[in-house]
Fold these 2 entries.
Entry 1:
Amino acid sequence: MRFKPWPRPTPFEDTSRKRAAYRRKQAREQAALPLFADAIAERQLEVDEEMIRRTGQWERQQQESRRQRADGWRRARARLFALKVDQRHAIRALWRICPYPADPSYLGTLLHEIATGRIDPAQPPWGGRHVLTPRTTPDPTSFTEAFRQIGQRTIGGGPKTTGADERLFCGNLGSGILFLTSRVRLIEPNESFYTSSNHRLRDSHVGRAGHWVEVVVRGTCSQTDLGRIARLAQDADTRPVVVRHIDGPPVSLSGSGCR
């Protein structure tokens, strides 16, 4: 089991307690050298300036931390991909189940321990072989059970078209991971999109009459699975739904001919 990554630090907050603590710090510095108290006070920042400085310092520290972490991942990945294919696959499978936190330094440690012979990928100290079993939903009863949303963007714009949300879903019905792109289409060119709270499949129900939903499937998908996706998508929306594979013909259950 993998440990959860460390939580992201919260941004710096300008609070009354921090301001009071900074004033006490100023007083201590001046009291430490009473003969030079005036000179020390002149070099000390005002409270507002100090809070601004700390905010900028926190942002710079976070940026530098992210840069160092990204460099660490690049170095660890370079070491990993320098290995032979079979060894690389074994280490990647081992990394998924090892008890180390998901951090580049720990991946580097794992690679070092394997290179020095301290850890055998075939017989790790925390367990035996691990067989990856993909998470599948072979017989889903609803669209939300089979697929989860992983992305969103707004398409369109202009005086007659305020835009429609295009959403990306992923799921696995048993034959491999599938990516679905859902977008609302206009039948009548004079119609326009609008967003209301009455949403279903895409979290954005758009338009009055004259709209239909297109779902494009990417990945290995049989005609049976394509028909199942079409039924689930149609059950999740009141408008006509047309489902098609990126390389194949469309499947429609509504019979509206909205293609």
Entry 2:
Amino acid sequence: MPNDRLRDAILRNGLTPVMVADKIGVDPKTVERWITQDRTPYPRYRHAIAAMVREDVPYLWPKAVTPEKASRIGQSEMVQLYSRRSSVPYELWHRLIERAEEQIGILAYAGLFLVEQDRKLVDVLRQKAVDGVDVKILLGDPTSPAIERRSVEEGAPGVMAAKIRQVQQYYRQLEEAPGVTVFYHDTTLYNSIYRFDDEMLVNMHVYGFPAPHAPVMHLRRLNGGDLFGTYADSFDRVVSASKQQPGGEVAA
């Protein structure tokens, strides 16, 4: 059975089996067998090809990485654990945003602190989009019962919806910016996720505590790991279930 994922990834990146073979130093027929007969390359070749086509090893060769090994690698994807979000240095947020070249993803209920700690954030995101970065911002739907439930859990009824309304005023400046999409979700978030290419800050949610007082994991994707991928998949699931207008509101 052919490895269609590998074939597609190679072609999608403008490569051919001969070009791949030349880059990693093997016979072109070997690469053809990896594709047509779904043979698994040695680890050094798997990692070289995965980097070349910008895909994960487990995606290209699902059977090559056991769950146990993926879990071990996943532990190394944790760069730093902060006991609370307020302990994350501003310089780290700034660096991650500035260095992003492919995608920036913000998934939160409001995430008001981002625009409060950097008044130029909207302009930076607009320029990033101009430079080709895919910017996705996912805010809570302020009309959703899930938002009020979160406010009540934090002991401040009505506050979360108010924060969302406040941050909307900033992100509405990006409505006409190509490459930027603002979504609204009614998901019960277990974490807020901030993604910058292959790095991510995951702000855990703790019952009864506001997000600034909850832990944050700084993750960096490693080929073969499963921790970063778990949160990236969660982010994508919320995107697929979101809409571009809050419930009951119509675009102006």
